[in-house]
Amino acid sequence: MSVLSLLPLSDIRKPLSEQVYHTIREAIVTLQLEPGLMIYENDLAESLGVSRTPIREAIRNLVNDQLLEVLPQRGTRVAYISERKVLETRFIRVQLERAAFRIVAQTWNSELMRPSRQLILNSLEGQQLAAENNNIVQFLQLDEVFHRIILELADNQTLMNVVYHMRGHLNRLRYLVIREYDHMSRVIDEHYELLKAIEANDEEVTTRLLEDHLGKMNSEVPELRQVFSHYFVD
After folding, report:
1. Over pLDDT 90: what percentage of the chain?
2. Strand, helix or coil for residue 58
3. Helices 136-153, 83-107: inter-axial angle, 10-degree rounding
4. Which of 9, 27, 53, 173 gives 20 to 30 Å between its CA and that of 138?
5. What residues have CB less than 8 Å from 225, skipping those under 6 apart?
6. pLDDT tens, per residue, the chain with 234 residues
7. Which pLDDT value is given to residue 73?
8. How far apart are CA 120 and CA 125, in angstroms?
9. What gap in Å lies between CA 58 and CA 52, rounded to an integer?
10. Residue 34 φ/ψ region, left for φ over 0, alpha for ψ in the -120 to 50 degree band, beta for the rest
11. Alpha helix (H) ranges present in the chain?
12. Predicted TM-score (pTM) of this structure
């Protein structure tokens, strides 16, 4: 049975091609489709119960994201993890989120932001539950929700789109780090500290905490590369 047959399509309110794209992307990011794995349109279509048309469109978009790569005369495979690409995308993500989080810290109003604050707290509670159940996939999804809610408050859709598409490379490595080193509790604590700094309208502390939060993993990467050398390309 294919891995993807175990996954529901994403939000059914979205167009089918978009659901297929997000479903396959999620499987790649969470290493359910491992780096180096050859994938085939027919298998994916059968697994997800859709025609080949949305599969073909999803593959094209994932190739553009550099999460899939086309091998001439051979087919399509899941791209290997490039440490260089991870470092590049992390640098850009830190710069973009740093600016957005600073804006949110500067403009935070406890009364006006009450609904958003509750959504943030809901995501943190969900993260705690996922950590207790050792559900890494759900934890990462809720980690993304935490960041997305805050980014939305900066009111910059272009920034949101750029950050989303870059996260795929970084999050594959983050998933591996969390799976192997169980850092979920630490991440939750850092999220609470970020929220506290934002609520205090402390731009400097907010940006410093965010840089530290997104800048971790360096110490674990060499060991992960040794254990999972078949996942990496450079």
Report:
1. 74
2. helix
3. 50
4. 53
5. 83, 232
6. 354 544 556 555 678 889 999 999 999 999 999 999 999 999 999 999 999 999 999 999 999 999 999 998 889 999 999 989 988 988 999 999 999 999 999 999 999 999 999 999 999 999 999 999 999 999 999 999 999 999 999 999 999 988 888 888 899 999 999 999 888 999 999 999 999 999 999 999 999 999 999 887 777 888 899 999 999 998
7. 86
8. 9
9. 10
10. beta
11. 16-29, 41-48, 52-64, 83-107, 114-132, 136-153, 157-181, 184-199, 203-214, 221-227
12. 0.87
Q: Please identify which residue in the block is written with the tokens 């999460």.
A: 67
Six token digits for residue 180: 């192997």
- Considering only CA atoms, which of 13, 80, 70, 77 is closest in space to residue 44? 77
Say which residues have a Cβ less than 8 Å from residue 89's Cβ, sequence separation at least 6.
166, 167, 169, 170
What is the C-alpha separation between 21 and 24, in angstroms, rounded?
A: 5
The pLDDT value recorded for residue 1 is: 39
Sheet with 38-39, strands from edge to edge, namely 38-39, 75-78, 68-71
DSSP 7: S
User: Rounded to an integer, what distance in angstroms lies between the CA atom of residue 21 and that of residue 213?
Assistant: 28
Whose CA is closest to 104, among 221, 8, 194? Answer: 194
Instruction: Give yes or no for a contact between 149 and 116, defined as CB atoms under 8 angstroms apart.
Output: yes
Tokens of 61: 């978009």
